[in-house]
Amino acid sequence: MDVEQLCRDHGAGEVVIARDLTEVDGREVATQFDAAIVDLMLGGTSTLDFASGLRAAGVPFVFASGYSDADEIKASFPGVRLVGKPYSGEDLVQAVAAACGRASPG
Q1: Which of 1, 3, 62, 71 would disulfide-bridge 95, Cβ 3.0–4.6 Å?
Q2: Could you give the domains of the chain?
Q3: What is the chain's alpha carbon radius of gyration, rounded to the nearest angstrom?
Q4: Has residue 27 got a pLDDT over 70?
């Protein structure tokens, strides 16, 4: 699935795809991101600290991952949705829309 194109098809302007955390670490998340789709692991590194930064900055996000330890995520990030792979484009769009507090575009 081309997540970048999916985001653009549903109204996203700039889409940043990171294959590891060095590509996004150090960015001012509050000003750089309106919303985020975060894989639990990028390049073999946990993204939980990055996700904590998003939460602290008030950036809405969802986790999308093949790792399915939902209990740990629910405990550490209550209210943040984990969309398990494989997922449909509709599932991901609905999760991001819900995180942003608006209805999914239809």
Answers
A1: 62
A2: 3-99 (3.40.50.2300)
A3: 13
A4: no
